């Protein structure tokens, strides 16, 4: 119920501000017996981290995860897992100038109206710093999903600004060089051009949006709950809830509007489905096909280019944002999107076995 | 928590199958003192109903709402409101032929895998019949939102198949003829062409998708909860959870990917925001601007054109759907989308005043 | 979250007022494949019903359960089960006289202060009529618990007014004549005296309290969740939430205060526990022993003996309650207590298998 | 929903084991603008702490609270408040001997059956160490309740073993010396005898139970939600969920069973209620009277007196507990009970204003 908690059974509660002493999370409901070590987190946190290439914000956080509870002798015990990361490179002075101003396109204005008070340092709670803990929690979900069900989850970028991937892969095996460049871009041939475009963007002071896609393979049929806990609905919430997200698609998404029904519906052969316009979800329940989602990320509004905005007294002021920002925040959203997909699947997996049993899903007609 | 319940504080629980004896809902958490009468439901239910023009399914349901509880002498009492609608025009024989088959693009296959049992009559629980109760619950939410906060919510169709509205309005006042034609199409001049296109579609046995947009005006700044109860995230879940939805956008949506940051961010003047690419939500919290969402609906998969599918024994069979179906289900989704937006706003309104008080939202710096 | 919903995974939402058209409930999350028929409800509803002996209220309700959804060809489908019972013997005129008065010891006063409006007919929502639906939902829970886990649940009365059962049984097999008399009293020899005492009580216009105890056998070890979802904590809420309940005990309850630690702690032999002061729960988790609870029910405040009370204008008035009431409401609480225990166990059973798997509970050290 | 979270709107999630690196909590949903400083926690944490007199466990924890988030410039911001306390005096070696044994009366056996794995150090998650965070969270709740509504909450001990307080006060003003002795005992004259009894108990190796009572004054009428979110039901869950609790009463509790109805029901005069057998709750909603609860705590099972128990291989072994334990754990439960009452009231206060508004509760007939 609490709004800083994600998930019903695999419930992740996060806390922490961008420039506070620490960020952290509590993961409640994790199945017992799963092997977890501090070093498990390094990979995905590093993929999300800033300061690793010239194309991201230059804030450099060690992102060392301390496991505070819930793990004994290297295995989860079923009790809540507390994770903590100290903030070490928060430069609050960068933000002092705009503490009394509302940056356009930011949550400054709305937090102030909602709460009557806000922590302006680095965007406070509304900073993407919070997503670090989503990625950390996602690591645990992904591990269980992989070990127990063989689920694999991989994200990539298919559009940056106006530049699109020519052919969007529908399977993880087809994702090519995705982990070999700073843009999570499957097609290695396009990377040099992207590097140049990003350099130009950074120099211009502008920013660009991105489209991130995620494929989850190995999801068994039967996950998802009608009618308000549908798998696709929860994926939509999970992905739209990431900072800067403005749109979410499942499968063919908005393209399905122009598809004839005879084309959109995925024919079924003895070997399975002949296409995957549905994106692996039918009636809110996984079909056994790859689950495919796509997310639109807006260009960051934190630019050093001045813009007219308001201060807390309602006066129009010229606002310049001088903090360290990503010219294209969508790129680093890839591991966050993967994590959110993992958290949704993990939660649905547990909910499914609650109602239908461990075996039920696979053997029709056996009461759960 | 329960998956057939929508909302945390204004909690709507629905039940009922397409061809069962009745559908119904329980609305828990409604503020006391709101005037509600059975006839309040007629308007929106009629907008959603089938059988009213030749462009929708010919199933004709009276959709008479019986108020079973929670209203005394015409006013809500604060206790749960039970609503019931008897099904009167369910023709289950239409479906007997495919009880042992999985219709491609439908939930037949996934329900079967999830539960090992399913009610095949009219799609059972997965039928859009369930959305009738969403609309009924939405009527109550809309009434409270209008009376208490002056919120207005209006949906429309901006695309059917490949046919798009030329200029998509951003304000309710600009929606023109939207309620004057069976397509919720703002531009009256295009309606004759749409009529012809729909007639051709129906004759061909094909189906088309639709894009539905919703505008909510009068939403005060401050509604929405960081970080997992964001207004836009909950709108995304609410809308993606409607039958046949495949994509959701807030504000500029996927177009924001290609917008430069300096364009996307909405400048603030003393008179307010100069544009609304954000769609009325910043950092997951309403900004006071119009909340704008867009939803992609796939073409229905229930066609009389045959398609290869599986039966329960895993054999490939030719499947023909002969029931009564809409050639473009997205059109009737307009009042459903409005209702879901209303339910999200209502729930967020109550959650906001729980934490920040009735007055808090409007008077910054006063402790809640 | 909604306050008229009980349970997290086996979620029962009730609605309806004492003198409204109907009462009902929606049961969400029921495992699929369970055989349920309308006649399954008759037994427990009859045990709870009024009008069956001279010792209860003379209201006579048919209590015919209509299954509105969630059951297909006699088996649960996993979708929400809607149950409806029409009110047929509501005599609202009995209550007209006190519509503007607050009956002492009743919810009239508090509903009025909470909501500013109330349905005074028969106590409205605060009437014990609502508990009919708890019993109905409990029937389904008990059936699943019995079929799947062999759980048996039986309640009895161990005290009426000052009259106590001499020896309180700790096992169901020892409950003797409990179902053979209108008082759920295990010791048949005491029944004639109870009959006489109840007759005298009724004639005097007074009322008496009761202590109800419930034993649940066959509960496997491992159900219950630390630290705020403890089995005993949820039993306490479930039982204290029944109308007129004022106290709840688990196992030795308040007697444990005066027990030395060496006596209270239950020694473990190879054959199991040597005693059961714990009441089958250790650390909030079932131990495999019989779960034992005890509930105190106050005497009803609805007496024909006049009492000073307030009217809605704050004036002191003499209040006489002339409706049909039980002289000892606690007696009929037996099936309600059993139902609430069943609902708690059912919900915990599903939550346990969500986190630990179907097999996990029984085979330590196997990761869930 | 998560089982380590307490509360729906003022949601407290705790984590941490007795001998892990730290314990902590996240408080979500706190109203913004409340002044909170680290030193606010010292008072209640010290009242709960061990090692302060010879009558408690000799474990000495600094219990220094670090505020990790949610507070900016000394005031709550409305975002989640993370609190952390490092464990500094955990002596795990004390427990090594019994890592493979199940201490009777403890959660060892049930955790092992539930999860197949457990952290045996100091009882792990089942240790009362966890309650430190409840007290910390309760500090914030109490402060808001006091500042906003004038609510005062005070607990005391009314029975230790067989020794009872002669006259149990019903008002906070009558609690006399309760804060002046290590037993939270209102009657100073009895304290020397208690000291002697506790010394004898400690020397004997035995333990004793306690009855703790809590009075909350200033609770306005209207808090509590029918029918499954009743104030008394939630108090019962909150208090029964404290380690070692075996019984909970509201108002007259089990005594009400033997009270005639004409005595139990609290007469209403123009000046208010003439008595308070109800304990401040009618129909699950606060009546404006003092809320009174009573909790039974069992004697601790951790004795140095040997007892027959099982080891993980099912063999009977003699178990001696040599760790540092309280001879009467119930005494230190006083601030924990107060905290749980505060958390329940806080959550209900927010839920009430969500549905009925800030003003609604006090002015009947004004729609919320």
UniProtKB/TrEMBL annotation, chains A, B, C, D:
One of its GO terms (molecular function) is chorismate synthase activity. It is an enzyme of class 4 (lyase). It comes from Novilysobacter selenitireducens. It catalyses: 5-O-(1-carboxyvinyl)-3-phosphoshikimate = chorismate + phosphate. Its cofactor is FMNH2. Belongs to the chorismate synthase family. Signal peptide: none annotated. PROSITE patterns: CHORISMATE_SYNTHASE_1, CHORISMATE_SYNTHASE_2, CHORISMATE_SYNTHASE_3. Its EC number is 4.2.3.5. Homotetramer. This is Chorismate synthase. NADP(+) binds at residues 48, 54. This reaction introduces a second double bond into the aromatic ring system. Reduced FMN (FMNH(2)). FMN binds at residues 125-127, 243-244, 283, 298-302, 324.
């Amino acid at each position: 119920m609490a709004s800083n908690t994600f998930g019903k059974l695999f419930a992740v509660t996060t806390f922490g501000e961008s420039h506070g002493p620490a960020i952290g999370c509590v993961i409640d409901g994790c199945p017992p017996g799963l092997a977890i070590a501090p070093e498990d987190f390094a990979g995905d946190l590093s993929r999300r981290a800033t300061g690793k290439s010239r194309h991201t914000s230059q804030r450099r956080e060690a992102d060392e995860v301390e496991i505070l509870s819930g793990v004994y002798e290297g295995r989860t015990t079923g009790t809540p897992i507390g994770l903590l990361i100290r903030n070490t490179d928060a430069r609050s002075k960068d933000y002092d100038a705009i503490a009394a101003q509302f940056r356009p396109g930011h949550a400054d204005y709305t937090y102030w109206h909602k709460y009557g008070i806000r922590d302006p340092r680095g965007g406070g709670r509304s900073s993407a710093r919070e997503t670090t803990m989503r990625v950390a929690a996602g690591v645990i979900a992904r591990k269980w999903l992989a070990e127990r069900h063989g689920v694999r989850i991989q994200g990539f970028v298919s559009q940056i600004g106006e530049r699109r991937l020519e052919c969007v892969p529908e399977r993880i095996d087809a994702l090519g060089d995705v982990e070999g460049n700073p843009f999570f871009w499957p097609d290695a041939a396009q990377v040099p051009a992207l590097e140049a475009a990003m350099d130009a963007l950074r120099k211009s002071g502008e920013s660009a949006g991105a489209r991130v896609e995620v494929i989850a393979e190995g999801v068994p049929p039967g996950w998802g709950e009608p009618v308000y806990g549908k798998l696709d609905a929860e994926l939509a919430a999970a992905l739209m809830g990431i900072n800067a997200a403005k749109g979410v698609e499942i499968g063919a998404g908005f393209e399905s509007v122009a598809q004839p029904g005879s084309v959109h519906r995925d024919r079924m052969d003895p070997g399975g489905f002949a296409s995957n316009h549905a994106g692996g979800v039918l009636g809110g329940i996984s079909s056994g096909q790859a689950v495919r989602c796509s997310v639109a990320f807006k260009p960051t509004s934190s630019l050093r280019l001045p813009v007219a905005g308001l201060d807390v007294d309602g006066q129009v002021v010229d606002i310049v944002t001088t903090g360290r920002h990503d010219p294209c925040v969508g790129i680093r959203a890839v591991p966050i999107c993967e994590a959110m997909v993992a958290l949704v699947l993990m939660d649905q997996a547990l909910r499914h076995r609650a109602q239908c049993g461990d075996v039920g899903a696979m053997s029709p007609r056996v009461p759960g």
